[in-house]
Amino acid sequence: MENSSSMSVEYWVRWQVLVCALIFILPTAIAVVFLRKRGESGVRGTLKPADLWDPCWRNLHPRWLLYYRAFAFVAMAFFLYQTVAAFGFFVFFFYTQWSFALVMVYFALATIVSIRGCRIHGIRPTQNGERDKFLNNNSEEINHGTTSPSKDKENKFELHRNQTPIIEQLRFLDNLLLIVYQTCAGAVMLTDIVFWCLLLPFMTGDNFKLTLLIGCMHSVNAVFLIIESALSRMPFTWFGLIYFVMWSCAYVVFQWVLHACCFTWWPYPFLDLSTPWAPLWYLALALVHIPCYGLYMLLMKAKYTALSGMFPHAFVRSI
């Protein structure tokens, strides 16, 4: 662990600093190139409006997904509040709290989308009934010669215009929700796997004690998100790996800026740039994003394979 040398010029002119910088700058540049090429089509993929708020279970009303999302948001907000109350805002120095807060943001956005989705679900039969009634009345009026073709065209345009605003207003939130969802999937896998399999076995002694709160912070994020995936019809594609990589790169930049300005302590030993092994650590962290995101992709594949086989009449495939 370094003292004041972390902020010195000598610390930042080491050869391993340049190599580590290239390791996370190159993936970020490649991600930006892919985003510019794919654009909105890469974000939306096979997205349909109902995929955001409709459950993947045929007889399950969307309001139950709304209830779950609201509960998950409140529960995660409670855990995060307890963590900040116990350790202070310094906890946001860690990647764990970054990913935890991101999952909480996802459930907040998902709750908003579900509220609007329940509204759409509730008025859809009424709208369809009004449309059928309008078309029937309009047909009768035409047969009796009481309306003109131009008036008929205006009425149809007005009906179509009144039915579209809800879908149009959701377009930005659709993209944002899908981006956050796919970023969360990789982030929670990385956070929990690194903590339970890499950090915890070596964090023994008087300086660290595993408590129920710490255990929940490194588990309920993944649990809530996996349950969400089992209930919802949110699409999940490999394109989301780009947002996961950019999210982690943003955290590394955040750490580097803080250490260049004032901090001398690294929250994770493998981020320390003073050791000659730093490039290998950074390369391993960059590569581990692929299996972490791939693990969640396997969970989604297992969901469609297993549930569609066990419940062919109740389960609805979205992709």
From TrEMBL:
Region annotation Disordered: where it falls in the sequence: 131-154
Keywords tagged on the record: Membrane, Transmembrane, Transmembrane helix
Composition bias type Polar residues, residue spans: 135-149
Keyword Transcription regulation among UniProt keywords: no
Transmembrane segments: 12-35, 66-92, 98-115, 176-202, 208-227, 239-268, 280-299
Record's GO cellular component terms: membrane
Entry keyword annotation includes Repressor: no
Top-rank taxon, per record: Eukaryota
Protein name in the entry: Uncharacterized protein
